[in-house]
Design brief:
The protein is of the alpha/beta class and about 220 residues long. The chain has one domain: Alpha-Beta Barrel (TIM Barrel). It contains 8 helices and 8 strands. The radius of gyration is 16 Å and the shape is globular. The structure holds D-xylitol-5-phosphate and zinc ion (ZN). The site of zinc ion has 6 residues, from strand 2.
Length: about 220
């Protein structure tokens, strides 16, 4: 599976968001990662559908919406309407996960599931056939710029094995602490969608940073 880079706007300069997004796209960004936080599931607040709608016209990248909220079902219609393409919900936030994933699909988006670092991959087996991707958190969600948690590499490997054993095609996304130092290890473990916030946007050179990080990732790809 080809390796894709997904710039995360959480680390962008919000005062010039459209320019930041365009720069990340020129640098090879394949989809835009949008972190939605509600101040309850995680101790931080970020973006709503109005912001998503405002940036939709500035890029052709698919929008990958990572819902870090306690009741994601309530927001599905509004984010679908705002132009989200892929929506991921946390296993830890969804007591009726199957229903949540179906709801996302009913609204024309690709459903995906996210797990926190301390949540085991095996719990996802029943829903793997219905997801576009699995997002493995490699930091505890809520903030950008945190340090990568190494044991999450094992979980990426387990998912890759499950995908093969179950004959499925879902993608494996990793989020948190992905940078020049850690990117080769996540690719080597089997991730094929790499979210990067700080590593892309931290110094106003999103195009160059994205291009260089993607090149490092592709260099580490055993399938390339
Ligand atoms: C963290 C978010 C991430 C965040 C990653 O809760 O889910 O998407 O933007 O940021 P970095 O790449 O800085 O670790
Ligand atoms: Zn995220």
């Amino acid at each position: 599976m080809a390796i894709d880079l997904l710039p995360s706007i959480l680390a962008a300069d919000f005062s010039r968001l459209a320019d930041e997004v365009k720069a990340a796209e020129r640098g090879g960004g394949a989809a835009l990662h949008i972190d939605v936080m509600d101040g309850h599931f995680v101790p931080n607040l970020t973006f709503g559908p109005a912001l998503v709608k405002a940036i939709r016209k500035h890029t052709t990248m698919p929008f990958d919406c990572h819902m870090m909220v306690q009741h994601p079902d309530e927001f599905v219609p509004a984010f679908a309407d705002a132009g989200v393409d892929w929506m991921s919900v946390h296993y830890e936030a969804c007591p009726h996960l199957h229903r949540s994933l179906e709801l996302i699909r009913d609204y024309g988006m690709e459903p995906a599931v996210v797990i926190n670092p301390a949540t085991a991959v095996d719990l996802l087996v029943p829903v793997l056939p219905m997801v576009h991707h699995v997002l493995v958190m490699s930091v505890n969600p809520g903030f950008g710029g945190q340090r990568f948690i190494p044991y999450t590499l094992t979980k990426i490997g387990q998912l890759k094995e499950l995908r093969q054993n179950m004959g499925l095609t879902f993608r494996i996304e990793v989020d948190g602490g992905v940078d020049r130092d850690t990117v080769a290890s996540v690719v080597d473990a089997g991730a094929d969608m790499l979210v990067a916030g700080t590593a892309v946007f931290n110094n106003g050179r999103a195009e160059e940073e994205a291009r260089e990080l993607l090149a490092l990732a592709r260099k580490a790809d055993p399938a390339a």
